[in-house]
């Protein structure tokens, strides 16, 4: 196993070079340590993927219904399915992301022509060009059949922002229940008699952000998580449940993790902590990346920003791990 080692100071210098300091004037030390044996195993699901009803990710992307007569499930390009399969994806998450906290899964099952058209609440805040109407032609069965075809474990995100625990439990039964159960029989009528056996479920998405539909404070979320966990595990006891963790570095992030883990840790299998690299929505980076589109012009600065962020990511993960020590 190879481990690339570099001091945080060296990584900091890389960040400074991206801000205009000539890189050839800086002495950067690095070393590589070769370990004879792996330090520990990583689960295959460490490396996952994510699709969401945002822009053309699903509509016109994964799902291009009507483009030709020979499409997987009637809507996915066969060459796309093969391309995804060639990546050997371990896990794919759906339906979000922010979209998940406004999504009601029952809108996306059954005959496609009978599925309701809904407003994409998560991505419609800046007008119809950002968030068009959602026809729900790509839903639970389409996603889970796609996962089966490409060999990926599915991860579903339950709606906390505008949903309910019973709605999430019904979704579990639709996916995992026997064909003679209420929602399992509905799945069978929709063409999949055997249970999908979805193992990984994320309860809510970034629910502490004030931009999220139905956002909650950490203590509120602890009670919400417990309610969802009880209802969902009553249907399928072996689920692996993922809780929302921090979105913020520093004390605020540590406090969120501590509250969630001490309040509901005995019911949580995984804690999801989100960090974006580089942080695109700071004023400086909005200008550089969102408006200036520097990442599209092969700018070296984004490379140095990402590389320099390694040390910050390590600190971020250590922040997230600290409450685990307190909880244990």
SSE arrangement:
Layout lengths: L1 E5 L1 H10 L12 E5 L14 E2 L27 H9 L4 E4 L23 E2 L13 E2 L5 H11 L2 E6 L6 H12 L5 H8 L10 E4 L14 H18 L4 E5 L6 H14 L5 E3 L10 H9 L8 H28 L1
Parallel strand pairs: 3-4, 4-7, 7-8, 8-9, 9-10
Antiparallel strand pairs: 1-2, 5-6
Helix pairs in contact: 1-9, 4-5, 4-6, 6-7, 7-9
Characteristic key phrases:
disordered N terminus; alpha/beta; 6-stranded parallel beta sheet; 10 strands; TIM Barrel; 328 residues; two-stranded antiparallel sheet
Can you tell me about this structure?
This protein has helices at 8-17, 78-86, 140-150, 165-176, 182-189, 218-235, 251-264, 283-291, 300-327, and strands at 2-6, 30-34, 49-50, 91-94, 118-119, 133-134, 153-158, 200-203, 240-244, 270-272. It has one domain (44-274): Glycosidases (TIM Barrel, Alpha-Beta Barrel). β9, α7 and β10 (270-272) form a beta-alpha-beta unit. The longest helix is centred in the C-terminal third of the chain and has 28 residues, at 300-327. It has 9 helices and 10 strands. With 328 residues, it is α/β, with parallel strands linked by helices. Residues 1-23 have low confidence and may be disordered. α7 (251-264) packs across α9.
């Amino acid at each position: 196993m190879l481990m690339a080692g570099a001091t945080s100071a060296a990584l900091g210098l890389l960040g400074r070079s991206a801000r205009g300091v000539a890189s050839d004037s800086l002495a950067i030390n690095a070393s590589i340590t070769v370990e004879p044996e792996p330090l520990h195993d990583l689960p295959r699901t460490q490396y996952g993927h994510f699709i969401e009803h945002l822009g053309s990710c699903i509509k016109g992307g994964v799902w291009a219904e009507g483009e030709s007569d020979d499409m997987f499930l009637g809507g996915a390009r066969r060459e796309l399915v093969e391309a995804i399969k060639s990546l050997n994806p371990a896990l794919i998450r759906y339906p979000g992301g922010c979209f998940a906290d406004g999504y009601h899964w029952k809108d996306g099952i059954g005959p496609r022509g009978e599925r309701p058209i809904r407003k994409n609440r998560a991505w419609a805040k800046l007008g119809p060009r950002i968030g068009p109407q959602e026809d729900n032609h790509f839903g639970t069965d389409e996603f889970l059949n796609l996962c089966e075809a490409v060999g990926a474990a599915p991860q579903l995100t339950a709606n906390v922002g505008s949903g309910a625990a019973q709605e999430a439990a019904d979704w579990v039964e639709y996916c995992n229940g026997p064909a003679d159960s209420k929602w399992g029989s509905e799945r069978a009528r929709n063409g999949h008699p055997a249970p999908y056996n979805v193992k990984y479920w994320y309860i809510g998405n970034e629910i502490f952000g004030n931009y999220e539909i139905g956002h909650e404070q950490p203590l509120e979320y602890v009670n919400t998580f417990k309610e969802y966990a009880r209802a969902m595990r009553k249907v399928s006891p072996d689920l692996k449940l993922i809780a929302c963790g921090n979105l913020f570095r520093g004390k605020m992030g540590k406090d969120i993790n501590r509250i969630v883990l001490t309040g509901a840790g005995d019911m949580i299998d995984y804690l999801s902590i989100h960090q974006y690299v580089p942080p695109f929505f700071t004023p400086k980076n909005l200008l550089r990346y969102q408006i200036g589109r520097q990442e599209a012009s092969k700018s070296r600065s984004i490379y140095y920003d990402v590389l320099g962020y390694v040390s910050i990511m390590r600190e971020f993960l250590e922040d997230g791990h600290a409450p685990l020590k307190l909880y244990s």
